[in-house]
Amino acid sequence: MNPSTPSTTDTLFTSGEIRYSQVWEDAGILSRGLEIQPSDHVLSIASAGCNALALLLEEPQSVTMVDLNPAQTALCHLKLAAIKELDYADFIGFWGAREHSKRWELFLGLRNRLPEGVAGFWAENRALIERGLLFSGRLERFFRNYQVEHLSQFHNAATLRNFLESDTLETQKRFFEEVMATPPFVADFKDYFGKDNFAQNGRSREQFQYAEYKDVGNYLFDRFRYACVTLPIQSNFYMEAFLTSHFRNLEIGPHYLRPDAFTKLKSLVDRVKIVTAKIDDHLLSTEARNYSKVNLSDLFEYLSVTQTQELMEVLASRVADRGRIAYWNFLTARTPGEELRGRLEVQGEFSHRLWLEDNSWAYCDFQVATLTI
Predict the structure, then answer these.
(1) Which domains does the chain have, with CATH numbers?
(2) Mean pLDDT over each residue of the chain, to the nearest integer
(3) What is the pLDDT of residue 13?
């Protein structure tokens, strides 16, 4: 897209609202797809910072988080400051993975470590900090409302716990099909996650304007069922968060919340830079061929075919030779156009194998592309 021409979704992402307080794309397949090396400079859509931090744990030379929404970059600034300054118990309590009675006091101790505008943003959002930020985003609140107002009408906490603790795929599949997937539950799931309700309360209508799946609720239930009967549930923290807004065992939770990763992250956070900008603007303002690995999240679902190809062209002109680009497609299939054939090539079989193991389950595919200058 022409960086001088605002996208139709620009207003959506500069609204100052925390849309995502977690990243809902599988960091495991992302890391395997990008194969981070010590020489890499990584560019990542910021969102809530979770996946950028997972890539940081691979110890590249640098990680740059970029996001158009200043609320998302403010979240990332605070997360980095908390990792750097707090001990592990205070960090997981402050962030909301565990209870903590003095979150505001911890923030006051971090305030001087934040850029002035970021500190001001959080000073105006004390209630968010005091509740814990882990499940504070618009999407996370939408999931929590589903759990409280809908899911609980069909399955109680004990039933969900038994499902999440299934110790074999056979047990898990049988439990889902015989206990969980009752006709009323399935119908309610499809209705709640249908396009109209999802657009109005969980995401936005602009985010569905290019959707190729017309029956979004039916599509999402099919993907949900796939994860529930095909992928091991015990270690799937994305599914646990979706069903319960909680992580029972942080040792197998999001990568940045794991106790064995915390000390390592403390030593690496100085390698991170946070930028509030459109990704194409940022790429065109930096040295060409600097970035060798790029995580685009599910960025292309927000763009038209023309805008997608314009951004692909920018990537092809700026990313390093033999660099890799990874991204998810949600309800819209996006691939590099014919004009990029031979320059930006999707590794189809490799990408598909990774997608089949995608614990974040909602996406219609995962793409890893390699650039050849």
Answers:
(1) 10-133+254-371 (3.40.50.150), 138-246 (no CATH)
(2) 94
(3) 45
